[in-house]
Amino acid sequence: MSTTTIDQLRDTELSYRMLLAAGAIAVFSFIAFFGLVFPESIWADLLGILISRSTLSSALRLAVPITFAALGGIFAEKAGVINIGLEGLLIISAFTAVITTAVIGPGVTILGLPAIWVGFFAGVLASLVFSLIFAVVCIRFKADQIIAGLAVWLIALGLAPFAATVYYGGVNTDNVGTTLGTWTIPVLSDIPFFGALFDAGPAVYMMLVAVPASWFVLNRTAFGRHIRASGENPKALDTVGVDVSRVRYAGVLLSGFLSGIGGSALSLGLGQFIGNNQTMVNGKGFIAIVAYLFGNYNPLGAFGASFLFAGLEAVQIRLQQVPGYAIPDSLIQTIPYITVIVILALVGRTRIPQAAGEHYDTGEDNR
């Protein structure tokens, strides 16, 4: 692909994202105008929800599993491995975190760690194990990455509720009696609206650190250059003596590690695993794929897209609690998903890494 073509694609992508940003600003301005002019209308209620500190707090919490899965997806796909099994990694880590905490007992500590944090790391470990199996199947045995990713999702989707049924007698686990809680930073937490950033669960702080850290690793370190080269031109990386397979293993394992954090935080933030239907994960792994595609494989952009969806999810939850309006809850619940469809229509021009999904044997072209 020529430099001119790449530049044209980037300009087009930027135009679409600027158009979406302008549209979001226009929608907010519209709501603000009618909310202020008609203080007794639904617009006023909607404006109150949008500028509410509790909405920001909910959006940050809901963004955690999507953001971590999106960051993981970026590392895997940038390395050349398409991991659509992010949903499965979230499910298995969410379940493992809760069941481990329950088995240990909420009041027990191991090596100084409370049971809930042992469960948290156990969930991350379970996700790592699944991602390692996925990596071996795709890299060592050259299986189709899409099929293997779907297998990870389907196995986790069946295994977690089954294990819960065996242990608890139902697909939903009991509440473990504790959660990750909230970390409050004095003074800063008293700031109106933005104080929610300083009065949040530990996973939110992890997310706010992980996003810029991921950007720095990908763009400012030798490891990040190897990851990008593995997905764009593995032959060139191989030529300079870097083992492409090892880089790809690292990218996939990072996707498992980050997704594990998101899944563990999701279930332990509630203190329970819910296995009904699509489980409590409920498509967040697939939305994460949309998020990093829309963010054009940029951790900052992926976080923005994740936060957008989470914010809409928080708004629709609050809207269902507003009395006096004959708007069906089922219609309100579609708001975030309609947004995802719109975003999917816009990400069609996102340029995926050239070698993503292609198998490569280190040294195969240099014999």
UniProtKB/TrEMBL annotation:
The membrane topology term of the UniProt record is: Multi-pass membrane protein
What is the first-listed, main subcellular location in coarse terms?
membrane
CDD domains registered for this protein in UniProt: TM_PBP1_transp_TpRbsC_like (cd06580)
| Keyword terms of this UniProt record | Cell membrane, Membrane, Transmembrane, Transmembrane helix
TM ranges: 18-38, 58-76, 88-110, 116-139, 146-171, 191-218, 252-274, 286-310
Reply yes or no: does the keyword Nucleotide-binding apply.
no
Record InterPro entries = ABC_transp_permease (IPR001851)
Instruction: Please give the superkingdom of this protein's source.
Output: Archaea
Query: Nucleotide-binding as a keyword?
Result: no
* Location within or outside the cell: Cell membrane
Q: In its UniProt entry, what is this protein called?
A: ABC transporter permease
